[in-house]
Specification:
Layout lengths: L1 E2 L9 E2 L3 E7 L12 E15 L11 E4 L9 E5 L8 E14 L4 E13 L2 E5 L8 E5 L2 E17 L4 E17 L3
Antiparallel strand pairs: 1-2, 3-4, 4-7, 5-6, 7-8, 8-11, 9-10, 11-12
Amino acid sequence: ADGSSKFGVNNRWGYFPSFSLGWRLTGEEFMKPLDWLSDLKIRAAYGTVGNDALGSYYAYQALYGLGWNNAAEPGALASSLSNEDLTWEVNKTISLGIDFGFLKNSITGTIELFDRGSSELLFDVPQGLSSVVTTRTENIGSMSNKGIELQLNADVIKTKNFKWELQVNATSLKNKIKKLPN
C-alpha cells in the first residue's frame, strides 16, 4: 500500500500487490547428467505499481495565485481546478523469463517476455481558450507495452589477470495507446 497527499481523502491510498516465482532446474537431480548446462532457471512475475508524479502536492485541490492586483487592491486568480476524483496512475506488469548458462557459465543469457499495461494515466487536460485556468489534472487513457528482450554474455578471454567479456542486448517493443479522451 502507498499513500499520497496529492490525491483527495477518498483516493489517497493505493494498493499495489506483486509476486514472483522461479525454478532453478539445474538444481534438480534429473538435470545433473547435463554437465555442459551450468544454469537453467525459469521465472514468472506479476506486479503493480502506482504513480503519483504530479507537478503539485495538492493536485486534487483548487489553488489560487496571489499577485493579480487591480491597481492598489490585492487580487487572486485561480491557478488550478479541483478534481476530487483524481487517483493513482496504475502500471501492471507480467513477465516470463528463462535464464541460462553454458560451459561453466562462460556463456550466459536471458530471454524475457513482458507485458506492461498502464491505466488511469495522469495528464493535464486543456480546458479551452475561454477558461481562466488552462488545464485540469485528470486520469485519462490507457496504454500497453509488450515485447521480448534477449541478453547474451560471453567470456571471450578469461585468464588469471585479464578478462574480456562480450555482451549483446536486443529488445523488440510494441507500444499501443488503448484509450485517450476525445
